[in-house]
Design goal:
Strand content: 15-25%
Helix content: 10-25%
Oligomer: single chain
Number of strands: 9
Structural class: alpha/beta
Largest sheet: 5 strands, mixed
Strand order of the largest sheet: 1-2-6-4-7
Order of helices and strands: EEEHEEEHHEEE
Number of helices: 3
Shape: globular
Amino acid sequence: FKVATGPSAHPDIVDWDAPWTLLAPEGLNILKEEQIQYFAYTMIMQNTGSVVVVLPVKDSVTGKDIPILDKSGSIHKDIPIMVRTYVLTALQNQVSRRISLTLFAIQHAQRTNSIQSMPNGLAEIDRERSPDQQEVTVTISPKSNDNDEL
């Protein structure tokens, strides 16, 4: 998968051929990249038809799960999602902001019944950032030595 971030919440225009793209909010810390890769690969090999996968995350400060939906019933702005890259390419013809791409992708996936969720514990949001740090960051932690299985 390819991680898509960008300045001012506008991810780069797709010019890669990875089958999945992770639309990542600012401060995302990927804890278990190899498990995310395995999950994405498995969905392709099993031909599930899924085009969107929600990646549940925890707040690194509080340790609490960030709810998938916000108070208005929309996807929470801090929830990363993986989108099939061909779907993201089509969506970028309509919108460019990460949150808009996320909402459009989820709407499409709901209409086609092609949305799934990954297990908890694969990523967290780091909110301990200095106010002057404006750059979008996504961190992929070193591979763990534990043998966690999905």
